[in-house]
Amino acid sequence: MDDNKLQLIASTGSIPAGKTQCVTVDGQEILLCHSKEGWYAIDNMCSHAKARLSEGKLKGCKVLCPLHGAAFDIRDGAALSKPASIPLKTYPLKITGDDIFIVL
Ligand code: FES
């Protein structure tokens, strides 16, 4: 892996388990998710009508849109329920010590 393409986005102590945080990388809002299965990063904008998923809830490995309730799998971005049908982009992460890097 080319480490020049890693960008530090958060520290592991800054987000409790079961919570999310919106980070902006190159002008793009990305939702960093701390699930019980680990850390994942997914686009913050719902693919249905552009609500911010950072205002929704994380339930296990699903994030729920605050506007119309669509669920997305934070592991692969899959749209799991209506009204959303378009998957969201996910981003690989690398964790070194307490530092969380996004792989660009
Ligand atoms: S904006 Fe997210 S489900 Fe409609």
What does this structure look like?
- The structure is a single chain.
- The chain has about 100 residues and is mainly beta.
- The protein has strands spanning about 5-10, 20-25, 30-35, 40-45, 55-60, 60-65, 70-75, 90, 95, 100-104.
- The strands form 3 sheets. It has a 4-stranded antiparallel beta sheet, with no helix packed on it. A 3-stranded antiparallel beta sheet has the order 1-10-9, with no helix packed on it. The chain has a 3-stranded antiparallel beta sheet with strand order 5-6-7, with no helix packed on it.
- A hairpin with a 6-residue loop joins strand 6 and strand 7 (about 70-75).
- The chain is globular.
- The model has no long low-confidence stretch (mean pLDDT about 95).
- FE2/S2 (inorganic) cluster (FES) binds near residues 46 and 49.
- FE2/S2 (inorganic) cluster (FES) binds near residues 68, 70 and 83.
- Keywords: 2Fe-2S, Dioxygenase, Iron, Iron-sulfur, Metal-binding, Oxidoreductase.
- Belongs to the bacterial ring-hydroxylating dioxygenase ferredoxin component family.
Indicate the percent of residues in helices. Answer: under 10%
How would you sum up the global shape? globular
| CATH architecture classification name | 3-layer Sandwich
**Segments where pLDDT lies below 50 for 5+ residues?**
none
Bound molecules: FE2/S2 (inorganic) cluster
- As for the number of domains, it is 1
Q: Structural class of the helices, strands and pairings?
A: mainly beta
The CATH superfamily title? Rieske [2Fe-2S] iron-sulphur domain
Strand content: over 45%
CATH topology group: Rieske Iron-sulfur Protein
Determine and state the CATH class.
Answer: Mainly Beta
Distance between the termini: 11 Å
Main beta-sheet annotation: 4 strands, antiparallel
Strand segment count: 10
- The count of helical stretches stands at 0
The radius of gyration computed from the alpha-carbon positions, rounded to a whole number of angstroms, is 13 Å
Mean pLDDT: 95
The strands making up the biggest β-sheet line up spatially as 2-3-4-8
